[in-house]
């Protein structure tokens, strides 16, 4: 898995951190804050994933997502920016206090750094969210601080099109002057796996319960599959000693 790989790239939400379920909670609270009844968490997530994929080429896909929610749930807001602001106001405490690394993810990242690998985050989240993880989230900061453990962090603002467009992965290779054969990507979602594969990079599918509906397609498209980071640590030890 790791032979010849010097740049290890991670998606953030659902891959390094347990956060997909948190965003379902955020969107539920957002919908209810406008006096509307939210659907199930599964339907909330499917709606979000579908809209973001359709709007991935927009200047701000998350603003488009909030505009769609405004229309879908009849929030009655003339300016979708108001919906977007409320969403991130709701999200702030969740991001600071509840989100944490997936089990053993921090250990794995530190082992990679010890071995001299370049570790990178390539996420579609906003930089403001990433800044909360970097500067305010005690769980993340105490285990494997982002600024200490990752050479570079890419967020939504760094690309024109979000995954499944391969732009972010192509940008990583350009910035580090490396070919796809030197890179390995860890992703939890089908859109993420497809983005990395479109860039020609080998992929590792990391299990996340919120992607189970796409499990067969994820496993079919990925080069490697792990149930958790304890497996990645063991494989790394066997291959790199």
TrEMBL record:
SUPFAM superfamilies assigned to the protein according to its UniProt record, in alphabetical order: HAD-like (SSF56784)
Ranges in a coiled coil: none
GO MF annotation, one: phosphatase activity
Highest taxon above the source species: Bacteria
Name of the protein in its database record: HAD family phosphatase
């Amino acid at each position: 898995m790791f032979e010849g790989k010097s740049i290890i790239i991670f998606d953030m939400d659902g891959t390094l951190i347990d956060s997909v379920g948190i965003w379902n909670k955020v969107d539920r609270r957002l919908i209810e804050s406008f006096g509307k009844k939210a659907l199930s968490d599964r339907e909330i997530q499917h709606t979000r994933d579908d809209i973001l994929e359709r709007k991935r080429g927009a200047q701000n896909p998350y603003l488009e997502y909030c505009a769609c929610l405004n229309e879908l749930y009849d929030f009655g807001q003339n300016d979708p920016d108001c919906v977007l602001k409320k969403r991130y106001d709701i999200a702030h405490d969740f991001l600071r206090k509840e989100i944490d690394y997936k089990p053993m993810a921090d250990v794995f990242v530190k082992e990679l750094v010890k071995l001299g690998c370049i570790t990178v985050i390539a996420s579609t989240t906003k930089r403001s969210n990433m800044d909360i993880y970097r500067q305010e989230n005690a769980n993340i900061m105490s285990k494997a601080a982002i600024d200490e453990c990752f050479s570079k962090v890419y967020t939504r603002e760094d690309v024109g099109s979000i995954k499944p467009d391969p732009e972010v992965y192509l940008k990583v290779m350009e910035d580090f002057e490396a070919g796809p054969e030197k890179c390995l990507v860890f992703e939890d979602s089908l859109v993420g796996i497809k983005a990395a594969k479109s860039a020609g990079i080998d992929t590792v599918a990391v299990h996340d319960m919120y992607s189970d509906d796409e499990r067969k397609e994820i496993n079919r498209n990925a080069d490697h599959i792990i149930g958790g980071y304890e497996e990645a640590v063991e494989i790394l030890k066997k291959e790199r000693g």
